[in-house]
Automatic annotation (TrEMBL):
GO terms for molecular function: kinase activity; phosphotransferase activity, alcohol group as acceptor. PROSITE patterns: FGGY_KINASES_2. Residues 262-450 form the Carbohydrate kinase FGGY C-terminal domain. This is Actin. It comes from the Bacteria. Keywords: Kinase, Transferase. It comes from Halomonas huangheensis. The keyword Transferase applies. SUPFAM superfamilies: Actin-like ATPase domain (SSF53067).
Length: 515
């Protein structure tokens, strides 16, 4: 039987596994959904057992496909959501607390402490990253300060893919992309943990697993017990994998400096490959999942992209299925002029990440009048996400990296021809998408195949069919250039009011977390 590999992506709302053959083709896939726990406003956490059960189900689902021979599987690689704090495990490797994932924003007081007590320029020069409650190191500080008994019992803090690889192999290791994404405690230039910054932040250095590996390296071999449970061969290599945004970017063809990909689903991540950390960019940087000792993955992200559209449809089309609402709105919104008749939307429904970095930022429609209808608001939401994309790309372009002229877009938004044209007109770049379903699980599969010598990921090798979806319209570009400047000016103008609104407390309002 020809050799195959398995790529797995542990996502925020679902896990997906797929089987690749030696040509990089997907021959089977399986997906399992779940939910995020949100016990308080701005909290977001998940128990790792949920991920474990979903991963096992997805592997078993793939192996049940008649096209797959379990004996042909040579390796397995794990991509995962950015796990924020990581999973606190005790000396017996038992989880002590849910993982505070990327969207959790509870560590605002820890952010303020860092801002007041640590030299931020020094911290960013070492780590390549700033300070925000998005980053895992601030969430670790929250665990230490708010859950001291748990912290005392914690042996390691493990990213999701590291924890799952341990369960498969019995070996503890953290890949460099996951370590770098924690920020604060990782030296981006030296590619190692920083005991110096950990001490300044008051974090226990010995809780960071000492073994760091490249994303394409094997953590260990599949244990005999797990091989029997899954129906795979014992000792096949379990590849470390890495952060899903970089994995999806790899699947989208980003293998060399200047390559860049926008991954737009529930949230948005635009990432580029470069080789030098650049302080002050307002973006997030960590070693890339390919050639990570040389290349850096730098990205910016909007917290709510597709989620903004889902919110809009749930709010204004509650009696419609989403598919029916899209079918009704797309032609109406397509007939509108660029700018939705001067209606702007700030897509800050959960605060915002880069380049704003404000957990208390809020969404807004600006410019509403009696002439606007539901299709105007729908188009404004699509355009608002496109402006957020351009805002992050602008920060990346300031780093003096020569970017590929084309913009590759992957994710659920590629189903909308209107959105693809808006993105082309707003960014001024031709937009390309893949005929195939390009996602993080594919990136994991590609790394596993590369480890086994089945595929090369060097140069401009693409594992899919690129299609040009939209080219910029010069007249639309001029309109969007003017509107984009308004968009950029809106947040600084509204930020004081956003914060004042957020600070209002009343016995008639729901309880609020401390921030």
């Amino acid at each position: 039987m020809p050799p195959t590999v398995i790529g797995i992506d542990i996502g925020t709302q679902s896990t997906k596994a797929l089987v690749l053959d030696a040509q990089g083709r997907i021959i089977a896939s399986h997906q399992q959904g779940y939910r995020v726990d949100t016990p308080q406003p701005r909290w977001a956490e998940q128990w790792p057992e949920v991920w474990w059960r979903a991963m096992v189900d997805c592997i078993e689902g793939c192996l049940a496909d008649p096209e797959v021979d379990a004996s042909s599987v040579q390796a397995l690689c794990i991509s995962s959501l950015y796990g924020g704090s990581g999973i606190a495990v005790d000396a017996d490797m038992q989880p002590l607390h849910p993982c505070l994932i990327w969207m959790d924003r509870r560590a605002e007081s820890q952010v303020r402490w860092v801002q007041q007590h640590v030299d931020l320029a020094w911290l960013e020069a070492i780590t390549g990253n700033g300070v925000d409650s998005y980053y895992g190191f601030t969430k670790m500080m929250w665990l230490k300060q708010e859950r001291p008994d748990l912290w005392a019992d914690t042996r390691y803090l493990l990213p999701p893919n590291s924890y799952l690889a341990w369960r498969l192999t019995g070996e503890v290791a953290v890949d460099h992309s996951s370590a770098g994404n924690i920020g604060g405690v990782y030296d981006l230039r030296q590619r190692c943990w920083s005991s110096e910054t950990a001490a300044a932040l008051g974090l226990d250095f010995d809780k960071l697993p000492p073994r760091l590996v490249d994303s394409g390296d094997a953590v260990g071999g599949l244990s005999e017990a797990m091989a029997r449970q899954l129906g795979l061969a014992a000792n096949i290599p379990i590849i470390a994998g890495g952060v899903d945004a970089a994995m999806a970017t790899l699947a989208g063809g980003a293998t060399a400096p200047g390559h860049h990909v926008a991954m737009i689903g529930t949230s948005m991540c635009w990432g580029m490959i470069n080789q030098q950390p650049t302080a002050g960019s307002g973006l997030i940087s960590f070693p890339h999942v390919l050639n990570g000792q040389r290349d850096i993955y730098t990205f910016g992200g909007a917290l709510t992209a597709g989620a903004s559209v889902s919110w809009y449809l749930d709010t204004f089309f509650a009696d419609h299925e989403h598919g029916d609402a899209y079918a009704e709105l797309e032609p109406l919104a397509s007939a509108l002029p660029p700018g939705a008749d001067r209606l702007l939307f700030l897509p800050y429904l959960m605060g915002e990440r880069s380049p704003v970095w404000d957990a208390r930022a809020s969404a807004a429609f600006i410019g509403l009048n009696f002439t606007h209808r539901r299709e105007h608001m729908y188009r404004a939401v699509l355009e608002g996400v496109a402006y957020a994309l351009r805002h992050n790309m602008q920060a990346g372009e300031a780093m003096q990296v020569e970017l590929d002229p084309r913009l590759i877009v992957v994710g659920g938004v590629t189903q909308s021809d209107l959105w693809m044209q808006i993105i082309a007109d707003v960014t001024g770049r031709p937009v390309y998408t893949y005929r195939e379903n390009v996602e993080a699980a594919l990136g994991a599969g590609l790394l596993a195949a590369r480890h086994q010598g089945l595929l090369s990921l060097d140069g401009d090798a693409l594992h899919g069919t690129l299609i040009e979806r939209a080219t910029p319209d010069a007249e639309a570009q001029r309109t969007y250039d003017a509107l984009f400047q308004c968009y950029c000016d809106l947040y600084p103008a509204l930020q004081p009011l956003m914060h004042r609104l957020d600070a209002i407390d009343s016995p008639l309002l729901p309880g609020k977390d401390n921030h």
